[in-house]
Design a protein that fits this description.
Elements (H helix, E strand, L loop, with lengths): L16 H4 L4 E5 L2 E6 L2 E8 L2 E10 H4 L9 E5 L2 E5 L4 E7 L6 E4 L3
Antiparallel strand pairs: 1-2, 2-3, 3-4, 5-6, 6-7, 7-8
Length: 108
């Protein structure tokens, strides 16, 4: 319970303005943090100075190969990322890239 009204809340994660009203999913893997909103994904990294946005918002289908669905949830199990929609669930493997990470679908 905050009693001091002069202290403003400072968010720990600098959310992009486009995400403030609506975030579909968020997850973390390998010290990288991802926010998914509508058809875009933001990638963040955490270091001693806090959260740093890596690059700019990228199209979800450019980061997650083959994903052209409305994202309802995302979660990580081990080194795999799962994206869920109303219709399908895909499993992805992370492939780090210098310009921003890419996730490739794992087919059964």
């Amino acid at each position: 319970l905050r009693t001091d009204r002069d202290v403003f809340y400072i968010p720990k994660l600098p959310l992009p303005k486009e995400c403030i009203g609506h975030t579909d999913a968020a997850f973390a893997i390998d010290n990288q943090y991802y926010l998914i909103s509508n058809t875009f994904v933001w990638q963040f990294e955490y270091d001693s100075s806090g959260f740093i946005e890596i690059g700019h918002a990228r199209r979800l289908s450019d980061v997650f190969a083959g994903w052209n669905f409305v994202t309802r949830a995302a979660f990580v199990v081990g080194q795999k990322v799962y994206l869920l929609s109303d219709e399908v669930a895909y499993r992805y493997t992370l492939y780090p890239q210098s310009y921003g990470n890419v996730f490739i679908i794992d087919f059964p």
